[in-house]
Design goal:
single chain; alpha/beta; Metallo-beta-lactamase, Chain A; seven-stranded mixed sheet; 14 strands; binds zinc ion
C-alpha cells in the first residue's frame, strides 16, 4: 500500500486555560493533498489561526474529539464565518457519541447542548430556523468504520476522559494516533503501538496527579519504557510548564509538541 504524505501543524499545544501569547488550546491543522482541516476547534482556535497567518477560508472541515470548550468553542465562529462571509458549508467529522441521534449519551449532543442556543437563528426573510445541517456537511464517525477524510483514512477510538461523557482519539492513515484529552491508560498506548501505530500525539499535564484525574500526568507517563516514550509527542500542557519540565520529558525519550511546528508524516 502506498503511504500517504500529510502534515500536522499545531495551532496551539496548551490546555483549557492557556492564554496567548504563551500558548493556545491544543488544536491542529491537518494538510493532505491540498486539503486543510482541523482536529478540534477550541475557544482560541480562530485567534490562533489568525496569529499564524492562516485564514479561516483555508479550513475545509473540522473533526471534533469531545465537547470541552478548548476543543469545540471556536466552532461557532468558524461556522458563522463560513456560512455568512464565505457562503459555504464546511465539513464536520463527528464521532457518533456527539450526536444524540446516534448515541445514548445524555447531554452530549453537539447541536442541542453546545451550539444551538446561539446558532439556531433565522435568516432575514425566512421563517425557519437554521440547523447544524445548514451550517455544515456532517459526516458521522464510529470506531468500527474508518472513513476517508479527503482521501486520508481516519478512524476514531474511545478514550476515557470525563466519566459518562464521550471522548475520542483519532488515527490517521493507520500510522499516527492523536489522543486528544484522556486519562492515562498504559493498555490503550500499548494497544495502539501493537497495531502498528508509529507515533502517538498524547496529552500531558506537568502538574502533580490528582485523584480521579481526567487528564494524563507526566508522573504517570514516566512508568512507560523508553522505546514507548520515543514514539510519543506530548501536547495539551499548561502555560506554567517549564523548560525544566520539557527537559525531564525529553531525557526519558518523549518529544514535546510546539505551537506552529509542522510534523510531516
Ligand atoms: Zn477535555
Ligand atoms: Zn482540552
Amino acid at each position: 500500500m502506498t503511504e500517504m504524505h500529510f502534515s500536522i501543524q499545531f495551532v496551539g499545544t496548551g490546555n483549557a486555560w492557556s492564554k496567548p501569547p504563551i500558548n493556545y488550546n491544543t488544536n491542529a491543522v491537518v494538510s493532505f493533498l491540498g486539503h486543510t482541516w482541523l482536529i478540534d476547534c477550541g475557544l482560541l482556535c480562530p485567534l490562533g489561526l489568525c496569529d499564524m497567518g492562516l485564514s479561516q477560508s483555508l479550513i475545509e472541515g473540522v473533526f471534533i474529539s469531545h465537547l470541552h470548550g478548548d476543543h469545540v468553542s471556536g466552532l461557532e465562529e468558524l461556522l458563522y464565518t463560513n456560512f455568512f462571509a464565505f457562503q459555504r458549508r464546511i465539513d464536520l467529522w463527528l464521532p457518533e457519541g456527539l450526536l444524540r441521534s446516534h448515541s445514548d449519551y445524555e447531554g452530549s449532543d453537539i447541536w442541542d447542548n453546545c451550539l444551538r442556543a446561539s446558532m439556531e437563528t433565522s435568516i432575514h426573510g425566512h421563517k425557519e430556523f437554521l440547523t447544524l445541517d445548514d451550517y455544515a456537511n456532517i459526516h458521522i464517525l464510529s470506531p468500527e468504520n474508518p472513513i476517508p477524510v479527503y482521501g486520508l483514512q481516519c478512524e476514531i477510538f474511545h478514550v476515557e476522559h470525563v466519566p459518562m461523557r464521550p471522548s475520542y482519539g483519532l488515527i490517521l492513515d493507520n500510522r499516527i494516533a492523536y489522543t486528544s484529552d484522556c486519562s492515562f491508560s498504559r493498555k490503550r498506548i500499548e494497544k495502539l503501538l501493537n497495531r502498528g501505530i508509529e507515533t502517538i500525539f498524547h496529552e500531558v499535564t506537568f502538574t502533580p496527579a490528582m485523584p480521579h484525574n481526567i487528564h494524563t500526568s507526566f508522573e504517570e507517563l514516566t512508568s512507560l519504557p523508553r522505546e514507548v516514550a520515543e514514539r510519543m509527542i506530548l501536547m495539551h500542557y499548561g502555560d506554567m510548564a517549564s523548560l525544566e519540565d520539557f527537559k525531564k520529558a525529553e531525557d526519558l525519550g518523549f518529544r514535546i509538541a510546539k505551537r506552529a511546528m509542522v510534523y510531516e508524516f
